[in-house]
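ESCALATION

Customer reports they have been waiting on this structure for their group meeting. Please prioritize. Original submission:
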Amino acid sequence: MKRADDQHERILSDLERRRQKRRKDDDEFKVVEGVIDPPTLKTLYRLLNRGTISALHGAISTGKEANVYRGEDADGKPVAVKIYRVSTAETDFMLEYIVGDPRFKKVKRRSRSLVPQWAMKEYKNLLRYSDAGVRVPQPLDIERNVLVMEFIGDKKSGLPAPLLRNIEIPAPVKTFNEIIRMVETGYVKAGLVHADLSEYNILWLGKPVFIDVSQSVLTGHNYALKYLFRDIQNITNYFTKLGVDTEDPVVIVEHIVKAGEE
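Update from on-call: job pushed to the front of the queue and completed.
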């Protein structure tokens, strides 16, 4: 334990010296002791060293799987830094979505091995969605359990975009149809099912933006259709509460699957 504490202190001290040397503002590279463990600090230091990030500020969101922080790139522009928890990771939950994925053939249950693969899975899924034209944060870099992405929000003020559930949607019917199109595009062109889609995993920046795609599975996954139905059901349930007369989830899923077969 003492060795880990000493390593933690050395890294913090190193970051402090770097901050003083550069004479940047006091927020150049903030970390919270006790929240970010020593191995993750070393990972952040590597990202700092190669210029991916130059600062780490407060949390944008917190969850069981990871925290997302507002960071800055080498030019001082905002980026989103997602740090996946390693010591408290629920590996059984992750295994359901990663075992059988041909992109990850050697999957181990130990969190130290599995979490970096889980982070890489989100990185690869973001790339697939982005390449297919589905609005997601653009992935910028990844190192172990830290993923750096495009910041979705007001880049001048640094304010993150709100979740869909926290706004008054200006045109619910149009937005519902747009989200279904995004799901279809993801299925047909990216070959992915989000598998965790709801009003909690969609940001609003004038248009919907899908986030948290670590669970997303390839359409060839054994449970892909089950997850697709769950995604559509979540979205239809939410928009029904807003007064939108939605199609039956079964019909929507059948349409998407058929489009994928054409």
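Sent to customer with the following note: The chain has a mean pLDDT of 88.
Escalation resolved.
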